Amino acid sequence: MTINWFKYASPAAFYPIAGRLVPVFSIAALGLVLFSLYWGFFETPERLGGSNPQKEYYRIIFVHVPSAWMSMWLYLVLAAWSGIGLVFNTRLSFMMANAIAPTGAIFTFIALWTGAFWGRPSWGTYWDWDPRLTSELILFFMYIGFMALHSAIDDSRRADRAAALLAIVGLVMLPVIYWSINCPDPNNCAALHQRSSLTQIESNILTAMLTMTLGFWLYSFATAFARLQGIILTRELESAWVRDMVSGPTPAASGG
Amino acid sequence: MFQVFLCILKRDLTLALRRRTDVLTTLFFFVIVVSLFPLGVGSERELLRLLGPGVVWVAALLASMLALERLFAADYDDGTLEQLLLAGQPLSLLALAKITAHWLLTGLPLVFIAPLMAMQYALEPVAIGVMMASLAIGTPVLSLLGAIGAALTLGLRGGGILLSLLILPLYIPVLVYGAGAVGVSVIEIADTQPYFYLLGAFLLAGLVLAPPATAAALRISLE
Amino acid sequence: MIEFFNQGGYAFFVWGAFGMTFLLLIAEILLLRQSRRTILTRVGRLARLRAQQPQPAEPASPQPEHQT
Description:
heterotrimer, B: mainly alpha, 9 helices, 0% strand, globular, C: mainly alpha, 2 helices, 69% helix
């Protein structure tokens, strides 16, 4: 089966599709988040034992880890849409990248905030120059830079393309930055070999974390599409299809 | 092709040497920022020795970033940049020439004034040598990366502030390894080698990747 | 019930983290909804303006872009 994907690359064609998708994703996201909250607070143990004992505050990871994952994933998606936009010159791709940026920035901020709130009871400090927290902070700067550059340029075509190029430069630089923060001393790179603790997590905790991640993901879809609709409308304010959508088609009155 | 490069380089250097204040402002900005820190944190020798590498490198970062604003601005204002775009020569080569001139005027002076600054922070002669070397390899990377940002923010109101927002996060790896090399040289000089390998790798990657990215950014900003 | 809200003495941290998370997400939804309403009003006003003048002499100047 072949679908002409470029058909949906026109903002006018995608606008109604986005409108139909928003409620679907919102309801699914709400359901998943509520389920995850229930599971995280009532089906999990009060405290963690083992090699890494933690008390009730470990529950913060149910929002911290999913939002940190989402913040990174959304930057990847943002950069991918920027790249597609620059290569194929499709306006909708740039709009998509712009629609994702604020949601990504919000998740980055949430990851930082919840990280600080988790750090205080477990490390005894709100902020530590932990490699992961620091990289998250840099990611936050990247999102802010993307949005600042876009809003500083009045001409929307130039703004789209300049911000897209910045996103790609950022994507190239991020691994280097991450690596340099992780391993400031190249003679001794122990920090790089952080073992993933995912395998030793109890399945109830993993369930709550993964459903929350899925919920946040669908939430990002919903907000991105809703924002996309707004961007499409503001950009195409003058076009015929927006007029028709509001006042219904007026075949006789409009002269051309 | 090399002649085009030389031609642009010579032109930019001549223009800058006719207006020496621009070059000197960057240099004195660097000196002032570095000199302010001991007034803020106190002049204990041990503390200064610890802070020195980081402070000098951050000041170098800021100085090179402040000068970036002027990298394309004058040529943009008088229309030279559009002429260069139409010149039929590869734009990345022209960008590389302008970046080189920019580094010779703003980065290289920092390398030579760094020993004075290092003395303010009571650094050892070995550390001073390492600092000069790391600045010599690191500051071109700053100019290369910064050029992309300068091209993207061309002609925008408040472009300077915006530029710092876009570019400073990208400077982190150079800062980490540049200041790290100086810090480590105090302990064991042989340990500085990997730092220089990494800085050199950044410089090579920057030389290959940054000029085309700058050219693309210039095209976006000028079309 | 009180025990649940107390979270073993870590109420401030647990609810501080969860509270900020959902505060921000809900705020984002509300802002999006509000901006959508603003845009739709503007579109409607433009359409009505057009309906009153069957032959617009020149298209209205595009509004500056406005995002949340």
